[in-house]
Design a protein that fits this description.
Layout: H1 2-8, H2 18-25, E1 29-32, H3 34-37, E2 52-55, H4 63-75, E3 79-85, H5 92-106, E4 110-114, H6 128-133, H7 136-139, E5 144-149, H8 164-177, E6 183-188, H9 194-206, E7 213-218, H10 223-233, H11 239-246, H12 249-252, H13 259-271, E8 277-283, H14 288-296
Parallel strand pairs: 1-2, 1-8, 2-3, 3-4, 4-5, 5-6, 6-7, 7-8
Helix pairs in contact: 2-13, 4-5, 10-11
């Protein structure tokens, strides 16, 4: 019913008040890789204080580079959340080593745990559930763990096109969240259409999931770049929104910005403050600086941004 009200609302009500969008983007998080982070001389002049910065672990990236980047960002005053991809880890001893190094050398106490992009695991671990069940994060005092969410499904997990397995995994993680002191949240892949995202958030809430959602959005970038990343990352049906834009000659050369997507989510959130959607996570497909500056321009006010 909430979704129905959103899209059947009066025309003049569809655009959210500016405060709604500003509230939504406040406290955004952003993703970097060691090689992209190395191109930024000073993150403190680019990101609001206490911003959560995810460090993507692309297969083959040396753990030394990951830890070095994490340490630099922590010393700059940011909340750092490295990816821990199960399928890239050869053994439990390697997992223990990675987590202990993040904690002891870089002062990290949070992580995004996920299966990872490899089709065949390097060792016995192949899912975020197995990572959690090892207990390694509890042993090293990690206070926050994020897990992946799939608003448009995940064909790598549910081969039949349903959401059966990803739904069951979220339920397990919800149960785990209730038995640990660590805070859990769901971070999603980027999408372009607000409807399937909203429907998914409402649906998982009815199954008993209460973990907050950090909603993935693509930062401003060239349309061609966006389509390439969307196809590579397996973005679901909402990619049709971008494909339609690409067919419009007048828009083809205009950089994509997530304005329409975010304003629709902000309007929905303003009407439904109880929604699990809590904040925004930015995939800087067009570059860290471009995404950060775009988000910063839409902050409520200059100064310290709250960390969630």
């Amino acid at each position: 019913m909430a979704l129905l009200n959103l899209f059947r609302g009066k025309q003049e009500d569809k655009a959210p008040k500016p405060a709604s969008l500003k509230s939504l983007v406040e406290g955004y998080s952003i993703e970097v890789m060691p090689r992209t982070a190395a191109k930024i001389d000073d993150f403190t002049t680019l990101l609001p204080k206490n911003t959560r910065v995810y460090i993507a672990h692309i297969d083959g990236t040396p753990i030394d580079d990951m830890v070095r980047t994490a340490k630099r960002l922590r010393e700059n005053g940011f909340e750092v959340m490295p990816h821990i991809p199960a399928r890239s880890i050869e053994s439990r001893a390697m997992l223990e080593d990675w987590v202990s190094r993040y904690h002891n050398e870089a002062g990290v106490d949070q992580a995004l745990v996920l299966g990872g992009g490899l089709s065949r695991p390097a060792g016995a671990l192949d899912s975020s559930l197995q990572l959690i069940e090892t207990g390694v994060f509890d042993r090293h005092g990690f206070k926050r763990l994020h897990v992946a969410g799939h608003p448009e499904g995940n064909r790598d997990i549910d081969l039949d096109g349903t959401t059966k397995l990803v739904d069951e995994a979220l339920k397990f993680k919800q149960i785990y969240s209730e038995s640990t002191d660590a805070k859990l949240a769901i971070v999603t892949q980027f999408a372009f259409d607000s409807r399937p995202v909203i429907l998914w958030a409402e649906r998982i809430a009815t199954t008993g999931v209460r973990m907050p959602i950090h909603l993935g959005v693509a930062g401003p970038t060239k349309l061609q770049t966006l389509i390439k990343f969307a196809l590579t990352c397996g973005v679901g049906p909402s990619i049709s929104v971008i494909q339609k834009r690409a067919m419009d000659i007048s828009k083809l050369l205009v950089p994509y910005e997530p304005t329409e997507f975010l304003t629709e989510i902000a309007d929905y959130k303003a009407r439904n403050p109880q929604s699990l959607i809590e904040q925004i996570h930015v995939f800087p497909l067009g570059g860290i600086r471009a995404s950060a500056e775009w988000m910063n321009e839409r902050q409520p006010a200059p100064g310290v941004i709250r960390a969630i």
